Amino acid sequence: MSVKRKATLKGTLTLTGSGNRVASHCINTPVKAALRFGLAALLVCAAACGKREETGASSPAQAGAQRHTLKGVIRAVDPARTEITVTHEEVPGYMAGMTMSFPVRDDPQVFSILRPGDRIEATLVVTGDKYWLEKILTKGFVPTPGAAAAAAGEPSGTGAAATPRPNRAVSIGDPFPDFTLTDQTGARVRLSDFRGQPVAVTFIYTRCPIATACPLTTAKFSKVDAAMAQKGYGELFTLTLDPEHDTPRVLAEYAKSAGASSKRWKFLTGDPRDVAEVASRFGILYYPDRGQLVHGQGIAVIDPKGKLSTIYYGNEWQPEHIVRDMEKAKTQG
User: What residue spans define the domains of the chain?
Assistant: First the structure.
């Protein structure tokens, strides 16, 4: 990670502010907590306080960014994607308390320290359609059995019929297992029926309250849809991760609001176990928490031969990336 990214060892949805403030957090950490966490607390303080001199002033791209302080409890840590999932308190003036995943821009050592159950305070940076956490500080520990159950692929006890199992994602270049789901018109949709066309796939749920998550994904996918309509090829699938709520009728209303035509852009649902299986093959995990859905974000392209061509995790992809990848897949397929 570039040294331009400010160190934080805590959290997923908060922005702390100035370097002086970070230093004061480290100095004022209760002695009892420092003794409890030992070396981990010292490493957190070292990364959060010592990195300030290396980072210097904010880059021009971050100069106009919004910064908010976020406090919450970590539910999951994903070093491979440099993300953490946090159940956070209300961020005054910005968003209600909820559980969601956040990219982390911090010293790489932070992922060797953070763990589910850590209570954190962090800086949430929002600039344009991107967001991430910086200056993460640990403040204690809270047991999180729900997060452990989700990591094991088990229901969390909140009524989930099924959740994806981890470590089952298809590798780039490998055939993607065939699946059959139901679109917004009630028609059955089978992946293998679209051989000969590149297929872009993304993931949402219609009740998602985060403007920079599912609604942004849908808005960007709409631009992909418009571009591919002009080119005259390609298919788009949006898979709901909340199939018990997102019935074909619900998805039809959502698709209408997005300006989507079922001829090219299909919003898919189905049996919760089938949806979980498909999501797991894309490496997308999710589980319910406090009435909301904690889920990974991603977008993939399957080539005309049914092989996984590309996949992006997170939400920093742009429509032109997907159009380019679909063009490449069509040519090579």
Answer: 19-143, 161-332
Fold of 161-332: Glutaredoxin (3.40.30)
Q: Which two tokens stand for residue 73?
A: 């409890």
pTM of the model: 0.58
Q: What is the pLDDT along the chain (333 residues), one digit of tens a residue?
A: 333 333 333 333 333 333 333 323 333 333 334 334 343 433 333 333 333 333 334 444 456 789 999 998 888 888 888 999 998 988 988 888 888 899 999 887 788 788 888 888 999 999 988 999 999 988 766 544 444 443 333 333 333 458 888 888 999 999 999 999 999 999 999 999 999 999 999 999 998 888 888 999 999 999 999 999 999 999 999 999 999 999 999 999 999 999 998 899 999 999 999 999 999 999 998 888 777 788 889 999 999 999 999 999 988 899 999 999 999 999 886
Q: Which CATH class is domain 19-143?
A: mainly beta
Interatomic CA distance for residues 194 and 192, integer angstroms = 5
| DSSP output for 180-241 | EEE-TTS-EEEGGGGTTS-EEEEEE-TT---TTTHHHHHHHHHHHHHHHHHHT--EEEEEES
Give the bridge partners for 268, in sequence order. 239
Short-list 116, 121, 97, CA closest to 26: 121
Distance, CA of 274 to CA of 278 (rounded, Å): 6
Q: Which residue has the tokens 């872009």?
A: 200
Fold agreement between 19-143 and 161-332: no
